[in-house]
Amino acid sequence: MRETTPRRVRNGIRQGADRVDAATPAERDRAVDALRAFAILGVVLGHWLVTALVADGATLHTASPLQHMPWLAPISWAFQTLAVFFLVGGHVATRGYISARARGTTYGAWLAARLSRLLKPVAAVLTLWTVTALALLLSGVEYDTVRALVKLALSPLWFLVVFTVLTAATPLLTRLNPLWPLAVVLHVDLLRFGLGGPSWLGSVNVVAGWLVPYALGAAWTRGELDRRRAAWLLLTGGTAATAALVAWAGYPASMVGVPGTGISNLGPPTLAVVTFGVAQCGLALLLRDRLRHALRRPVAWAAVALVNLSAMTIFLWHQTALMATTATGLLVGRLPGLHTVPDGLDWVWARLAWLPVFTLVLAVCWTAFRHHEQGGRRRTERPGRSRVVRVHRTSERARARHV
Q: Is the dihedral of CA 128, 129, 134, 139 positive or negative?
C-alpha cells in the first residue's frame, strides 16, 4: 500500500529530525538552546501582540492595546523575555571565552568569530529599510508615517548594540558579581525618581540593567547557580521585589513601554524590569532539567535547533513582517486588528487571527535573508550528499553558536 502524502511528510520530518539529533554532539547542553529559542520567540510574539499601526487618514502611527486596556499588562510578563536572552548570552560568551583562552586563541580572534554571525544580518536590514524609506518619501508618503515605520523596523538594533558591548567586555565580566550592576540600577532610579535627577541618567541603566542577567549567565558558567536553591532564590526574590516596586513604589505594571505613560519600564530599563528579569532567570534555571529531558525527543530538538540557526534573522525581520502585512492590508481598507485603534477585546481577537499571516510573511523574509546569518551552500556539494552535508553543517554551526 502506498503511503499517503501526510504520512510521507511526517516520516520525512521524523527522519530529518533523527539525523539532526544524531549529528548533535553528546556534550551539548540542549537546554541552553531551548532557552535562547524561547527568548527570541517571546520577543517576537510580544511585539506582534502589543504593537499596533493605526491608520489615521493617510498617516500611520503606533499604538498599544496596553495603553487602552492596562489590565492586559500580564501579556508583557509572559513575552518580555530579553533577560533570558542576556542570561544565555552571558553564559555562552563566558564559557566560549574561557575555552578559547585555554586553546590559546587571542581575544581579537575570539571576538571577531563571536560577533560575525551576530552582526552580518544587520547590513541587510539597514540596506533594505534605507532604500524603502527613501522610496516612500519620494513617492509622497507623509514623513510621520515613514518615521514610524523605520523606527519600528530598526528598534531591534538597540538590543544588538548593548549585546555587542557586553560581549566585547566579557573578559572583564567573567568574575563580576551581579549585585554590582543591580546596585547601579537601584541608585540611578533613586536619583531619577526619588531625588528629581536629570532624565539622562537613565541611559546608564541601558547597560547596567542588562548587565545583571548577563552577569548571572557568567555566574552560571562558574557553577554558582547549579543548585536549585540558587534558582529558587532568584525566582522568589525577583518576584517579591517586582511586586513591591509595582504596588508601593509607583512603577508601571507593564514590563514593556506603553505610549503616553510617564514612566516606561523598558526605555531605559528600570529597577522593576531588572528585578522582573532576575525572577525570569531563576525560572529559566529551574527549567533546565525538564528541558534537557524534553529535548531528548529528536523532533523537539530539531525545532529548537532550527530556531537557533535563524535566531538573528527572526529577531531582525519580525517587525518588517508586521509592517509589510499592515501596509499591504491598507490596499483593501482599514482592517480590524491591523489598522484599527486597539481599544477593545474585538481588536485582541482580530490581532490573534493575524498572527498566522505575520508568521507566513516572516517565513518569506527568512527564506530571502537567512543566508546572511547561515552562509551560502557550497557549489561543490554533490546533490546526493547535500542533505547529509547540511545536517552536519547544522551541527557544526550549533557547536559554535555565539549568540
A: positive
Phi and psi, residue 80, nearest 5°: -90, 85
Is residue 319 a contact partner of residue 152, using CB atoms and an 8 Å limit?
A: yes
Contact 164, 214 (CB under 8 A): no
**Nearest CA among 161, 150, 159 for reference residue 125:** 150
**Distances from the Cα of 129 to the Cα of 123, 322, 342, angstroms:** 10, 14, 26
Mean pLDDT per 10-residue segment, the chain (403 residues): 67 78 83 94 93 80 89 90 96 95 93 83 88 89 83 84 94 94 96 90 94 97 94 97 95 86 86 97 96 91 90 91 88 88 93 96 91 59 43 47 43
Residue 181 CB partners (closer than 8 Å, separation 6+): 208, 209, 211, 212, 215
- Using CA atoms, how far apart are residues 367 and 381, in angstroms rounded to an integer? 20
Q: CA dist 221 to 27, 110, 274, 298, Å?
A: 15, 17, 20, 26
Three-state secondary-structure class, residue 104:
coil
Q: What is the DSSP string of 262-326?
A: S--SBTTBPHHHHHHHHHHHHHHHHTHHHHHHHTTSHHHHHHHHHHHHTHHHHHHHHHHHHHHHH
- The model carries a pTM of 0.89
Contact 25, 296 (CB under 8 A): no
Reading the block at residue 179, the C-alpha cell is 549585585
Strands 59-63 and 52-56: antiparallel
Is cis: bond before 268, omega within 30 of 0?
yes
147, with CB counted inside 10 A (0-12, 13-18, 19+), is: middle
- The Cα 318–Cα 19 span in angstroms is 29
Amino acid (1-letter code) at residue 143:
Y
